[in-house]
Design a protein that fits this description.
With 219 residues, the protein is mainly α. The protein has 11 helices and no strands. It folds into 2 domains: 13-110, Rna Polymerase Sigma Factor, Chain: A, CATH 1.10.1740.10; 125-216, Winged helix-like DNA-binding domain superfamily/Winged helix DNA-binding domain (Arc Repressor Mutant, subunit A, Orthogonal Bundle), CATH 1.10.10. Helix 2 runs antiparallel to helix 3 (56-72).
Length: 219
């Protein structure tokens, strides 16, 4: 599930501004901007979508449908600084619809998150930002597998997509407090099961836990 090499670095202010510019130019009908938008987001959206299904064709169709609809209805799409959560939420909805359409035994609540092979690089790599041994990687993966689907998805959206709690709440269709609860419980369980984990994952886990704790005290 988890590999120690980090393929996605923290997003800079310039990259966020560039996304907004691409979005604006795409809405104006600039094909180059649209292609840039696809290239910019395709890999991480494919990565996120792959956590819900092993059906590569279904995922590819959902991604193609997502971007085709964006281009077709570009004049009706509003300018927004929340591009990444908009795309994540749209893809999530499409995958859920397609998975349920192809299986009469699956409901939205039963579609699991993290349905990937052990050879794939997963989003939780953004949680550790350091080199782990094979043993440590395997142990962390085993602990992550014990979390609920919602906890794993919240961690994915927080550490890989680098979304705010408000944005995660919108994607998961829950309130901000529920997101804080998911992150707090998931990260606390990791630390309780592996007390020395904090020294390995360092700053990112520390900050996330502090934020979650603070949010839990605000009612």
């Amino acid at each position: 599930m988890l590999k120690s090499d980090i393929s996605r670095q923290p997003q800079t202010a310039w990259e966020k501004t560039d996304e907004t510019l691409l979005w604006q130019q795409f809405r104006e009908g600039q094909q180059e901007a649209f292609q840039g938008l696809v290239q910019h987001f395709y890999r991480e959206l494919h990565f996120y979508g792959g956590r819900f299904t092993r059906d590569a064709d279904l995922l590819k169709d959902c991604l193609q449908d997502l971007f085709l609809n964006l281009w077709t209805y570009r004049h009706k799409i509003v300018q927004t600084p929340y591009i990444r959560p908009y795309l994540y939420k749209s893809l999530r909805r499409k995958i859920y619809r397609e998975v349920m359409r192809h299986s009469s035994t699956v409901s939205e609540g039963s579609i699991t998150f993290d349905d990937v092979s052990s050879e794939e690089i997963t989003a939780e790599q953004a949680l550790i930002r350091t080199e782990l041994s094979d043993y440590q990687t395997a142990r962390l993966n085993a602990l992550l597998a014990q979390l609920s689907d919602r906890q794993r998805e919240a961690i994915h959206l927080k550490f890989y997509a680098e979304l705010s709690n408000d944005e995660i709440a919108d994607i998961l269709a829950v309130n901000k407090q529920s997101v804080a609860n998911l992150l707090h419980r998931g990260l606390s369980r990791l630390r309780e099961s592996w007390p020395s984990l904090l020294s390995l994952v360092g700053y990112w886990l520390l900050v996330a836990e502090r934020i979650a704790d603070e949010l839990l005290t605000v009612r």
